[in-house]
Automatic annotation (TrEMBL):
GO molecular function terms noted in the UniProt entry: NAD+ binding; prephenate dehydrogenase (NAD+) activity; prephenate dehydrogenase (NADP+) activity
Designated name of the protein: Prephenate/arogenate dehydrogenase domain-containing protein
Domain Prephenate/arogenate dehydrogenase: 1-276
Amino-acid biosynthesis is among the record's keywords: no
PROSITE patterns: PDH_ADH (PS51176)
Stored InterPro entries: 6-PGluconate_DH-like_C_sf, NAD(P)-bd_dom_sf, PDH_C, PDH_N, Preph/Arog_dehydrog, Prephen_DH
Amino acid sequence: MKAAVIGAGKMGGWFAKYFCKKGYDVRIFDKRPNVAYRLAKEVGTAASRSLEDAVRDADVTLVAVPPGSTASVVVEASRYAKHGSVVVEVSSIKAHVIASLKRLRHTHARLLSVHPLFGPGASSMRGKVVALVPIKSKNSEMRIAKSLFDDAKVVAVDWRTHDRAMAYVLSLSHALAVSLVFAMDNRTFRKAMGLSGTTFKLQILSAATSLSESPELMISAFKLNPYALRALSSYRRKLGELSEVLSRGDLPRLRKIFRACTAKTGPRLYEEAYGLLEGYSRLV
């Protein structure tokens, strides 16, 4: 079995290693040849000189490129894909991709749109969730996804539900993490780190994770997701309401807000958070 990985970034690198471990003969292509060759050397496989060369004989082609380029790269890859092969894209935003792939007619490949709900730091796919966003046939695409990612839990979700959730899970959470660091000048940041407990340090670790992404990716998360700016506007309104409550010292209203929020999170998430805090404390 042969696999082509298009895109030699973090997730492209993760999936190149994944397919190698699965026994595939992997070829890597990236528009930056030096990046592709570096990843190929690290993984122990070969880099292709062109997208066509990588895709032509592949049984599986995985596209892991920036969200703004995903649809066009999938369309191009599908032109070269052999009959019966699978072309799968792993973008974190689906609206524009699904619309483009639904219009795609002239291809002999089977198309798949998934979103791995984990980052490139994951040691394996075991126990992880992969969201499947159906393009044409949920049942047949689910079968393909489960055969490719048999270690994961594959969950089907329509693109609107997916992108609404990602507006908060990715777009807004990245903005919140970066804003925590952005709000402090250098001196305040150093003082805060020196006087912080585990809760603040975990929040900074979350911010560092967001800051490890490229600025272009963060912009894409807001420009391409039709629900992202709505989520940010909702947050700004709620933050304004909370600021007003705190400035007035309105304890009854604050208690009401706390009750509404704890009803959403429940005791299980508190216990999980406490476990993470204890685990972090043992590491430092």
